[in-house]
Design goal:
Layout (H helix, E strand, L loop, with lengths): L11 E2 L2 E2 L9 H9 L3 H22 L13
Antiparallel strand pairs: 1-2
Helix pairs in contact: 1-2
């Protein structure tokens, strides 16, 4: 089993900006980030999204922006 930890207060995640990640995110992620009212919540969400994309992209050999995420509700 592999466990990954992420500092959601960092300005960068895996060398990518967590403060300005919008070009990397898909429309659903940008919309969700825009709905978060508190800056801290938005920052944690964006850092988590960037971290997930960096991690999966590393495993798949893809740039984080090229990772396609499907969310089921």
């Amino acid at each position: 089993m592999t466990v990954w930890a992420l500092d959601t207060t960092s300005d960068a995640v895996g060398g990518y900006s967590a403060a300005q990640p919008l070009p990397m995110l898909d429309a659903a992620e940008r919309e969700r980030a825009g709905q978060l009212l508190r800056a801290g919540d938005r920052r944690r969400y964006l850092a988590s999204s960037v971290g997930l994309r960096v991690l999966i992209g590393g495993y798949l050999g893809l740039a984080p922006a090229d990772v396609v995420l499907v969310r089921e509700t």
